[in-house]
Amino acid sequence: MMALIQRVAHARVDVVGQPVGQIGPGLLVLLCAERGDTDAHAHKLLAKLLKLRIFSDDAGKMNRSVQDLDGQGTPGGLLVVSQFTLAADTSGGNRPSFTQAAPPDEGRRLYELFVALATAAHPEVATGQFAADMQVHLVNDGPVTIPLRVA
């Protein structure tokens, strides 16, 4: 399982021009399930994501996680968006291949599992809509963009 995370000042996902999920400061999580991924991968990726120290402390060092943005226990938001195109393989030419992405039913199941786990572990979780044509609006804070992959 893999994710591309972006530290954001705020982010929103629209479907057919209507907002379906939005957060203030926190993490935009573009999430991709790949062939062979299991429930254990979802658990491991979420654990890593929640503890990743990429928010600045009072000295300006990246020492805080999304669970404690201000050093006082205030959590940031998570906006989780399905993104099968992260599995793109462009080595064979100019048209990407997505054969490494999980099949749609399995991708949906793992996405929904990840969202359920995140919702149980974190107070503010918003989502996009699986397999929809979405428009993602964000203000990347930093900018900070980090790929995460668990095996």
Task: Explain what this protein looks like in three dimensions.
This protein has 151 residues and is α/β, with parallel strands linked by helices. The chain is built from two helices and eight strands; from the N terminus they run E-E-E-H-E-E-E-H-E-E. The strands form two sheets. Strands 1, 2, 3, 6, 7 and 8 form a six-stranded mixed beta sheet that branches. Strands 4-5 form a two-stranded antiparallel sheet. A hairpin with a 5-residue loop joins strand 4 and strand 5 (62-64). Helix 1 (39-51) crosses helix 2 (104-121).
Summary?
The protein is an alpha/beta fold. 21% of the residues lie in helices and 38% in strands. The chain has helices at residues 39-51, 104-121; strands at residues 2-15, 18-23, 26-32, 55-56, 62-64, 77-82, 125-127, 134-149.
Rg (C-alpha, Å) = 15 Å
| CATH-defined fold name | D-tyrosyl-trna(Tyr) Deacylase, Chain: A
Question: Please, how many domains?
Answer: 1
Distance between the termini: 7 Å
Which range best describes the helical content: under 10%, 10-25%, 25-40%, 40-55%, 55-70% or over 70%?
10-25%
Structural class: alpha/beta
Q: Secondary-structure element sequence?
A: EEEHEEEHEE
Q: Give the oligomeric state of the chains in this entry, treating copies of one chain as homo and distinct chains as hetero.
A: single chain
The number of helical runs is 2
Gross morphology: globular
